[in-house]
Design a protein that fits this description.
single chain, 370 residues, alpha/beta, four-stranded mixed sheet, 26% helix, binds 6-aminohexanamide
């Protein structure tokens, strides 16, 4: 695998929107007992459900540690490819490569991964295996890679429209544990150079109590160029209200890279979801890993969906707003099936369906929707 000395912008490569065609999806198998309850057994069942569901629409590869390879292979259907890749946890959106394309070829961008804040406020230590995942996926895919040696970024902290606009949050990208040596303008320059962008829109914060320092992929997502969803609550007593309101204010006054106003659709959140005593007791307490305490509020949001060829996969929480979320997404993706998956077990690990998936875009069909 070749490591390139240039940048995607100089080479004419851009990051496509997730709604553009894919060659496939990557997922990492969950097992870490200080993040997933009961050694990841309940989460593994849901990961099987997600991988199996996506594999009906596009090829899925699941990466497993050596000790879990046989179990993952046994639990997953044969259509899902299982490969051995060492990892520290199951968040391929964040530690995997960000793929870019010039319409003919695909290349990977390999950022530094430091477990969402390194020794400052990261979620576990060490994270060296996760940091090597992007390179290994580029090897498997036979894609050349752009390697950044100092710039920390997770895939879940950015969303793009594929037409030159990126949306992120100040809470995350300006956090002390990422790139404190860089100014906001310098961070914008790196993103523009490596993802080929003209416009960056900064939302102030992500979902209330999101342990990633407010990843954008839990609060906002593009559904098409000029169209997006925003996680929303009408409950003015919920701290989430001010956060979503502030994000909407930004989105209403900004324009995207093409000068368009973004048409924002509100996606009502589920009622607050708290960790139960039984769930908390199932997680190993390890010094240096974020604890999971009974009563802690989880960062549940329907905005954490994954767009695949022909389908959209969204987390469900057994909440009255599940149906409204399905309906809203169905209206925004008329050509795709909207598939809901009960995802509390993924939420208990700190993220959701978008965070556990990473697309490999297809190089062929610039701008085309599947
Ligand atoms: O992208 C994400 N939301 C990942 C969350 C990671 C949580 C690790 N415990």
């Amino acid at each position: 695998m070749k490591t390139l000395e240039t940048t995607p912008r100089r080479d004419g490569f851009r990051m496509p929107g997730e709604f553009e065609p894919h060659l496939g999806t990557y997922i990492i198998w969950p097992e870490r007992p200080d993040n997933w309850r009961l050694g990841g057994k309940p989460a593994q069942k849901v990961f099987v459900e997600v991988a199996t569901a996506i594999s009906r629409y596009e090829p899925v590869t699941v990466c497993a540690n050596a000790n879990q390879y046989a179990n993952a292979r046994e639990m997953l259907p044969e259509e899902v490819r299982v490969v051995e890749i060492s990892n520290d946890d199951a968040w391929v959106r964040d530690c995997g490569p960000t793929f870019v394309t010039n319409g003919k070829e695909i290349r990977g961008v390999d950022w530094v991964f430091n477990a969402w804040g390194g020794l400052y406020d990261g979620l576990y230590f060490p994270w060296d295996k996760d940091d090597a995942v992007a390179q290994k996926i580029c090897e498997i895919e036979r894609r050349a890679r752009y390697k950044l040696y100092e710039f920390v970024l997770e895939g879940g902290s950015i969303h793009v429209d594929g037409e030159g606009t990126l949306v992120t949050t100040e809470e995350c990208l300006l956090s002390e544990g990422r790139n404190p040596h860089l100014t906001k303008e310098e961070i914008e320059e790196v993103l523009k150079e490596y993802l080929n962008l003209e416009k960056i829109i900064w939302l102030p914060r992500g979902i209330y109590l999101d342990e990633t320092n407010g990843h954008v992929d839990n609060i906002f997502s593009f559904t098409a160029p000029g169209e997006a969803v925003l996680a929303w609550t009408e409950d003015k007593d919920d701290p989430q209200y001010e956060i979503s309101r502030a994000a909407l204010d930004v989105l209403e006054r900004e324009r995207d890279a093409k000068g368009r106003k973004i048409n924002v659709h509100k996606l009502l959140l589920p009622k607050p979801i708290l960790i139960t005593a039984e769930e908390s007791e199932g997680v190993d307490a390890v010094n240096g890993t974020l604890p999971r305490m009974e009563g802690d509020r989880l960062a549940a949001s329907y905005a954490n969906f994954y767009i695949a060829n022909g389908a959209v996969f969204l987390p469900l929480f057994n909440d009255p707003n599940d149906e409204a979320a399905i309906k809203t997404l169905q209206s925004l993706f008329p050509g795709r099936e909207v598939v809901g998956i009960y995802a509390r077990e993924i939420l208990l690990g700190g993220g959701n369906i978008h965070c556990i998936t990473q697309q490999v875009p297809a190089p062929c069909c610039d701008g085309e929707k599947v």
